[in-house]
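Entry 14. Ran structure prediction on the chain below.
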Amino acid sequence: MLTADSVLGTVLAVCALVAVIGVAVWATRIPAAVVAVPAAVLLAVLGVVSWGQIGTELEFIGPTIGFLAAMLVIAEVCARTGVFAWIGAVLARSSRGSPTRLLGLVFAAAAVTTAVLSIDTTIVLLTPVAVATARRIGARVTPVGAATAHLANSASTLLPVSNLTNLLAFSATGLGFLGFAGLMAGPWVAAIVVEYLLFRWFFADQLRPPRDADRPADTAGTVRRPPIGTLIALGLILVGFVVAEPLGVPLAVVAAIGAVVMVAPLMRRTPLSTTVRVVRAANIGFLAFVAALGVIILPIRLGPIGDAIATLIPSGTQLWALLAVAALAAVIANLLNNLPATLLLLPMVAHEPGLALAMLLGVNIGPNLGYFGSLANLLWRDLMHRHTAAPTTRRFLLLGTVTVPPTLVAAVVALWAGLRVLG
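Output, structure tokens:
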């Protein structure tokens, strides 16, 4: 009989995971859910994973998937109401034609966007704005483009809502919203500062003002009014996350209410087009992919592979233990992609919040090493191909080799210090 403990069951689960990730990475025209959902059902039918285990897993990740859908809709409203067009105008005007100043501004914008609206928003909505702004002032595109990719990963550690990996781990840690943010604030700042300094060094030649400036850089542009209503709504949603969580109100409920409130004015003006945009923004296919991936990773986690990895997890929250867990998580994220890595490792570290947070640093910062590390990287690569030229795999790997180890170490040390002070 096939089970997660059997050799054949483990082989089937690994083959299913490889097939699903392969489609997600290479066959970008085929929705990953088209392969992931049947693969998950097949594992259940064959008995590799039981329907009861599937129900438990879906019950665990269901609120996370609902929250993700609501935040995707909120990001769409932000784009439609001009938040990112306004950010682009602010970047161009504030940079005053300086590529170095623009890089710093893009770092700040990407860090805040990722923390508040999540990793995918930074990739899909901020990257085109950063690229267009660089061209507008006559700066090189590569540094600011790479900044949005790296910050989408490494700046996604601050809040439970910043990344799907955070959402999965949030409830398992037992920390409150403010407790999570308090412990991750130090690592968030450390990662951003270290990565910015490394970017300044790595892209030094590309941050010099262009010599052949045939025309003055366009830094004025059209003066745009900030979308006050949308920005206020975002602020209220964040306040809602902080206030509702101690009262036992799920974050998904707050996000759903926020999405409905933000969509309502657009729905009154253009109901049909808004409905279409909302459905597309919610990305049902991706949500199904996430749910199926949780099922596919189950027999791997419960089988001999999971048992072997569990023996590598240290106990306690000493600095060396946090560094070991973060490094292990970074390696597995680059082998399996960060979402399966989180689903695999989370039950092994959930007993100790410090280790769970170190794991998050590994699966969030580690993917900057290579394109395969996160789905956001692959999405960014496709966007850059459409807007300019994405760095080669070798160049991306070189940048990751330079930035990931020191950034990850700095973040883990900051986490260790925070645990000593706040823990």
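The radius of gyration is 21 Å. Will compare against last week's run tomorrow.
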